[in-house]
Amino acid sequence: MVQEAEKYKAEDEKQRDKVSSKNSLESYAFNMKATVGDERLQGKINGEDKQKIPDKCNEIINRLDKNPTAEKGELEHQQKELEKACDPTITKLPSPGLLPEGRPWRYQGGPWAQKQKRRSMYCAFAQCYHSTV
C-alpha cells in the first residue's frame, strides 16, 4: 500500500498543481469582471476598457469550459495573457480607503517587483470592493 502511494504521489502533485492553476485563473477572471462591472468604479474606467476586460475574461472562461483537461503551463500562459490585458487599466485606479490621502497604490512604499505590485493591487481591490457587496 505504501508503494502504491509513492507510485501515485507525483501524479497527485501534478494534478493538484493543475487544479490550483485552473482555480487561480478562473478566480482572477471572475474577479476582474466583477471589478470592472462595479458601479462604484464606473466613472474611473474608460469605455473601451470597460468592454475589453469582460470580453477577455469571458474568452478565458469559455476556453476553460471547452478544455477542462488543459495543462498547467497552458493555464499559466492564459493567466499571464489575462493579466497583461487587465493590468494597464487596474493599475490606473486608486484604492480608496486602503491608503492614506487616497493616493494610488503605486506612489506608496518602496521598490516592489511588478508582480508584487499587481497582486497587492488586486488584493486591495478584492478586499475593498468585493467584501462589501
Automatic annotation (TrEMBL):
Presence of the UniProt keyword Nucleotidyltransferase in the record: no
Keyword GTP-binding applies: no
InterPro entries in alphabetical order: HSP70_C_sf (IPR029048), Hsp_70_fam (IPR013126)
A Pfam family the protein falls into: HSP70
Region (Disordered): 1-33, 68-104
Record's keyword terms, sorted: ATP-binding, Nucleotide-binding
GO molecular function term, any single one: ATP-dependent protein folding chaperone
Membrane-spanning parts: none
Stretches with biased composition (Basic and acidic residues): 1-20, 68-86
Similarity field: Belongs to the heat shock protein 70 family.
Name the UniProt record assigns to this protein: Uncharacterized protein
Native source organism of the sequence: Urocitellus parryii (Arctic ground squirrel)
